[in-house]
Write a structure and sequence with these properties.
single chain; L-arginine/glycine Amidinotransferase, Chain A; three-stranded mixed β-sheet; 426 residues; alpha/beta; 15 strands; binds N~2~-(3-carboxypropanoyl)-L-ornithine
């Protein structure tokens, strides 16, 4: 079995509206001018690099933006443009919400339990409701539609709908899987948070994590519910994948990630006695540096030739303490053979690093063949997508542009052309 990453293609409406409370990057870049074309090409560059490293790569599609159907529920009526114009006049925050390109962060699209972990031997997928942030709560219906196409084969896959709103579920960003190798039953660590009065919100609730484990049919002895530390949430770790990443038998984790770090390590070592836990102490890398650099929002991948690579955002190289830790970690005989830096600045400025941009699925050849192949990439599709982005994605979006009909039209046309190219009738 192997891992396939499904990256969210950055949509044409990518902008800096500062919608994500508790996400420090989103807040600090609010009001800046975005570059959707560059953003999408940066994301595509990561997908290309993963393919060059020998991994299979998939893509999930941008959602319809502006999401006029959603705006209509607030009493705005008329043509699509009339709806958007009225929203902009009366409730500009609602139009900003309806224009968010946040579906790019597919680590929040769903939680995936690979077949070896589940009672019925199918791969289980739960779409996330993302109900804590308004702009993300509008994603679930379209995400569920796309996952329904991708995982249509019910002999291999079981797709569960999003949990009821009010019980925050933010998907795979809050799940880690530890196992001797991809194809062996894994320990699934589901990470939740608790909101403190006056603090940043915890976006993954314990009830949601427990429900996902139940729905997926995970064995009790291979399931751990772990609580995020308050320090991590307040420092800006709104998802666990900002302070920890796991791949097969390796966990890379900040010392202050969990409320009870020892319990997490014990469970891992009980399940995989040969596991390697690379704990980064706060004395070497502070939570602040970890969150500024997104060191832990890396993709830790198994290379086809053996060994692992860590794909980090290039902010890591520009954060002294993190760069030093990376050099030390790769100079010894540790499991990480190489580190690759990627420029993902446009997404990073909204708090989304390499790991946020991908949903990973572990499957075998038969299950892979059962996927809707339109979502899988090859060289020709990469080229074709790049051409559509070059031709159609807006170059820049300033905060005022969000209220212009030209932008709405450009976003609709850009997405339509992409969907046509990939064989999805809009
Ligand atoms: N996993 C990374 C998710 C990043 C995402 N950022 C945003 O939504 C920023 C959007 C804005 O600020 O306009 C979030 O916080 O959920």
């Amino acid at each position: 079995m192997r891992e396939i990453n499904f990256d969210g293609l950055v949509g044409p409406s990518h902008n800096y509206a500062g919608l994500s409370f508790g996400n420090r990057a989103s807040a600090s870049h609010a009001g800046e001018v975005s570059r959707p074309r560059v953003a999408a090409l940066q994301g595509l560059g990561k997908m290309r690099r993963m393919m060059e490293l020998g991994l299979r790569q998939g893509v999930l599609l941008p959602h319809e933006r502006p999401l006029t159907g959603w705006l209509r529920q607030f009493g705005f009526s008329g043509t699509d443009d009339a709806v958007c114009a009225a929203a902009w006049r009366n409730e500009p925050g609602l139009l900003r919400t309806a224009l968010s390109a946040s579906p790019m962060w597919t680590a929040n699209a769903a939680t995936v339990s690979p077949a070896p972990d589940t009672a019925d031997g199918r791969c289980h997928i739960s779409a996330a409701n993302l109900c804590t942030m308004l702009h993300r709560s509008i994603e679930a219906p379209e995400t569920t539609r796309q996952l329904g196409l991708l995982f249509a084969d019910t002999d291999r896959f079981a797709l569960h709908p999003a949990l009821p709103a009010g019980i925050g579920d933010e998907g795979a960003a809050n799940m880690m899987r530890l196992c001797p190798h991809h194809g062996a039953p894994g320990l699934e660590i589901l990470v939740y948070g608790e909101t403190r009065p006056d603090g940043f919100p915890a976006r993954q609730s314990r009830i949601a994590s427990a429900a996902v484990a139940r729905r997926h049919g995970l064995a009790a002895e291979r399931t751990l519910l772990a609580r995020q530390s308050d320090a991590a949430i307040q420092a800006g770790a709104f998802h666990n994948d900002v302070v920890a990443v796991a791949n097969e038998s390796v966990l890379l984790v900040h010392e202050q990630a969990f409320a009870d770090q020892g319990q997490v390590y014990d469970a891992i070592l009980r399940h995989v006695s040969s596991a390697t836990i690379l704990e980064v102490p706060a004395s070497l890398v502070s939570l602040e540096d970890a969150i500024r650099s997104y060191l832990f929002n890396a993709q830790l991948i198994t290379l086809p030739e053996g060994g692992m690579a860590l794909i980090v955002p290039d902010e890591c190289r520009r954060t002294g303490a993190v760069a030093a830790w990376l050099d030390a970690a790769t100079s010894g005989n540790g499991p990480v053979r190489r580190v690759e830096s990627m420029n993902l600045r446009e997404s990073m400025q909204n708090g989304g690093g390499p790991a946020c941009l991908r949903l990973r699925i572990v499957l075998d050849d038969v299950a892979e063949a059962a996927l809707d192949q339109r979502f899988l990439l090859d060289e020709a599709k990469l080229e074709g997508i790049a051409t559509v982005i070059d031709d159609r994605w807006p170059e820049r979006i300033s905060p005022d542009d969000l209220g212009h009909a030209d932008l709405w039209e450009d976003c609709r046309n850009a997405r339509r052309e992409l969907l046509d190219f990939l064989g999805f009738a809009a």
